[in-house]
Write a structure and sequence with these properties.
about 200 residues; mainly alpha; 7 helices; about 80% helix; elongated; HXXEE; transmembrane helix; HXXEE domain-containing protein; membrane; transmembrane
């Protein structure tokens, strides 16, 4: 039988995610902030449902995640060169500004570093590191990809990030598939160990 994991990691990450969401809602254009809030909820929920009890073991999953993170940086390069922060403020006529410096520091460099640290942590099956695998898969990948196809429709033309948005669907879809498959394999391994002990 699976040993129940400690609850502290889930609690700490829930508090940190809530703090990040609060900051986003208070400072960023509300439409961008809402996407980040939904991404946080989806990422935390996927982590709890699939990888909290059984942290990822497969290097294949982690390798795909790291490739996805590399792609995320390419995507954000398109966003930056197209003036994404300014464009989203204009698109939604937001009263809040989104300085490019803040965009770079928080979302490119800050989250970029966190993503790679999480990849290193996932190699050692550190529970908290697995949160970021799901954050990319469901939030920065899938949800962000969807948003980048909606924005051009609202604008009636190109919106920064559109050209690389399709890659998010491919990378996040593959990562979600592998994360769920990994959970099933680890669960099957545990059941086999229990059955061997019973015998």
């Amino acid at each position: 039988m699976t040993k129940r994991p400690e609850p502290y990691s889930a609690t700490v990450m829930a508090i940190l995610a809530a703090a990040f969401c609060t900051w986003a809602l208070l400072t960023l254009p509300i439409q961008g902030a809402v996407i980040l809030v939904v991404a946080s909820v989806l990422g935390w929920s996927g982590w709890i449902a699939f990888s909290y009890t059984r942290p990822v073991k497969s290097r294949k999953v982690i390798a795909v995640y790291l490739c996805a993170v590399g792609f995320q940086l390419i995507h954000m390069a398109e966003e930056y060169t197209g003036g994404f922060p300014h464009e989203i403020v204009e698109l939604f006529d937001s009263p809040r500004d989104w300085p490019e410096k803040e965009f770079l520091l928080v979302f490119v460099f800050g989250f970029g570093a966190l993503y790679f640290f999480a990849g290193a942590g996932a190699l050692y099956r550190i529970r908290v590191a697995n949160f970021f695998l799901w954050w990319y898969a469901l939030g920065a990948g899938l949800l962000n990809g969807i948003a980048h196809f909606v924005f051009p429709i609202l604008k009636g033309g190109y919106f920064p990030g559109l050209y690389t948005a399709g890659g998010h669907f491919i990378m996040s879809g593959l990562l979600i598939y592998l994360l769920i498959k990994e959970n099933r394999l680890l669960k099957a391994e545990e059941q086999q160990q229990v059955q061997s002990l019973v015998r």
